[in-house]
Every structure is written in C-alpha cells, then in structure tokens.
Amino acid sequence: MKYFFISVCFSGIIFFSSCGQKQEHPTDMVNIPATAGEGVDKGNLPAMKFQEEIFDFGTITQGEKVSHDFKFINDGEKELIISNAYGSCGCTVPEVPKKPIPSGEENIIRVTFNSEGKSGMVTKDVTILTNCIPNNRVIKIKANIFVPQNKNPVKP
Predict the structure, then answer these.
(1) Across the chain, what does the average pLDDT equal?
(2) Beta strand residue intervals within 89-134, DSSP E
(3) SS3 assignment, position 78
(4) How far apart are CA 115 and CA 146, in angstroms?
(5) pLDDT tens digits along 95-105
(6) How far is 128 from 28, CA to CA, in rounded Å?
(7) In a 3-state reduction of DSSP, which class is residue 1?
(8) Calpha distance 145→60 (Å, rounded)
(9) Given a cut of 70, is residue 155 above it in pLDDT?
C-alpha cells in the first residue's frame, strides 16, 4: 500500500508538471513537407535526380577499399537539404554535402566500400534522407569480391 501511494504521488507530480509546458517545434527548422498536415504542392519542392542509382565496382580483391561518386542534380524549385545518409552496414560509408543545394545545381554523394572480410557477390544500400517527397532515396553499390587463395602462404 505504501508503494502504491508513492507511485500515485510521483505520477501526479510528473503529470501536473508537464501540463503547463507548451512545446513548440518550429517547422521551418526541418521543413519536411511530407509531415505537414495540409496539402503539398509537389511542384514547389526540391527533387533529387541521380545520373545512376546503382554502381557495379566489378571484381575487386578482398581487403580493397573502393569509392564511387554518385552525381545528382536538384531538379526541383526549392533548396535540397540532405539531413542524413547511412549505409546498410559499417563497410559502406556515404559522404554527403553539408550545405543546402540550390535549385538546378549538381553535387555528389561519395560512397566508400571496404571489402575486408567479404567474399563473393555483394550488394549494399545507401539510404539518403532529404526534404523531397518521398523523403528517402536508396542508391546501391555492387561488387564481386575475389579472395586470393594464397593470401597467407605457408612457408616451408
């Protein structure tokens, strides 16, 4: 009974202390139109258009690090903001522009793949979060990783 009374008092303190606070989240900071409650004019948004969405490195040797630049253009009316990008594993690392990309300008996303510990055919995704609709895009890299048979030869 004692613990019940203490938990009721503690819950009441939390409830009443949070009721008077008004939390405001300015929408102009994020400006992701997909989360807005009103209708969205898709013609008045940024648009991310890639020259290619899949790149094949071909055959590479295990342990090799390779990179590719995915070129894109902001084909929309507003500035393109890339808020985040991440690879499908720790071996795939994207580098994205930090500044907004004005309408009509080109830029790149560099993707570096580390093949250490990998073998055979691999496909990795890079997810990019933007202020476009839809707000996420996925680009892919592929590689056929060759593992040398005599990587650590035994000396007689």
Answers:
(1) 82
(2) 92-95, 106-114, 120-130
(3) coil
(4) 10
(5) 999 999 999 99
(6) 20
(7) coil
(8) 5
(9) no
Distance CA 95, CA 86 (A): 9
Q: Which residues contact 30 (CB under 8 A, 6 or more apart)?
A: 83, 131
CB atoms closer than 10 angstroms to residue 2: 6
Is residue 62 within 8 A of residue 93, CB to CB? The reply is no
Give every CB contact of residue 147 below 8 A, 6+ residues apart in sequence.
62, 119
pLDDT in tens, 31-67: 555 555 456 666 789 999 999 999 999 999 999 999 9
Euclidean distance between CA atoms 42 and 74, whole angstroms: 14
- Pairing status of strand 120-130 against strand 48-50: unpaired
**Total-model pTM:** 0.71
Phi/psi at 120 (5° precision): 75, -160
